[in-house]
Known about the structure:
By secondary structure, this protein is α/β, with parallel strands linked by helices. It has helices at 43-52, 73-76, 79-88, 103-113, 115-123, 191-194, 207-210, 215-224, 228-238, 255-263; strands spanning 6-11, 25-30, 33-37, 65-67, 95-99, 135-139, 143-147, 152-157, 167-172, 177-180, 199-205, 242-249, 270-272.
Amino acid sequence: MAQQPQVVLLGTGTPNPDPLRMGPCTVVTVAGQAYIVDCGAGLVRRAHQAYQQGVAALDVKNLSTLLLTHLHSDHTVGLPDLIFSPWVMGREQPLAVFGPPGTRSLVDHVVAAYGEDIKARTCGLEPINETGGRAVATEIQSGVVLENEHIRIEAFGVKHGTTWQPFGYKFITAERTIVVSGDTAPCESAYDQWRDCDVLVHEVYSQQGFDNREPEWQRYHSHMHTSGIELGKIAAYVKPKKLVMTHLLLWGASIDSLIAEVRQNFSGEIHCGEDLGVY
C-alpha cells in the first residue's frame, strides 16, 4: 500500500539564527515526489537527514520542485543550495520554481551569479551532467499552480506586506488535504478554502513574547504575522484535523505558553513544529 501524503518540516525557524531551527521550509511528499515550500537556510542538509531517517522522497538528487510563498530572504536564501547541491549529487533536470511576481528575476540572477561554478564543473574533469544545474521559474497567480494524477496544488493570496503578492498553498490528494499558510497576518478571505483540511501548517508568534517587544516591532509583527491567540481562533473556524505550527517567533517565551495561547480558542490536535518533524 502506498504511503499517505506527509508533511515534513525541514526548517521551522525565522531570520533569527537559531541553530536548532533551520530557515523556513515545509515539504509535502506525495507518491514519492517532494513538493518543497520555501527554501530557507540549511534545507538540503535537512532533506538528507530526513532521507536518512526514512523519508525516501527527500533523496537529495530527486529534489526538483519548489514553491515560493514570497521573496523574503529567510524564505529564499537556500535557493542556490537547492539549485546546485542536488545537481552535484546527480539531479539531471533543472529545478522547477513556482512563485509570485519577481521569482523569475530572482532565479535568473542566482543562476547567473554561479556562472563560473557551472562552467568549471561542466568544462573540467568533473563527471557531471549539463542540465541539472539550472532552474526554470514560473510566476503564478491565485488558482491552480500544478496538477498531475497524484496531486492538485492551488495558490491563495495572504497578508504579508503591501508591496508584493504573497501566497499560501493548498495540496489536494485522494488521501489528504494539506494547507501551508506561508507568512501571513490573519487573512479571513482564505479560510473557507482551508475548512476541514487534514493538516494546517501555519506560522505563529507568541503573544507573551510579543508583549515584551519594542513598539515599532509590535507594529510590524501585528501587521505581518499571526499570534498564538489569533491562530487559535483561525483553527476553531477552519477545524483542521491537525494543526502544525511553524516559523516560530517565541522571543523567549516557552512552547507550552504558545500552545496555551492557541488552546484558548482551539481544542483540536496541535503540534509545535520541530525540524525533521513528520506529520
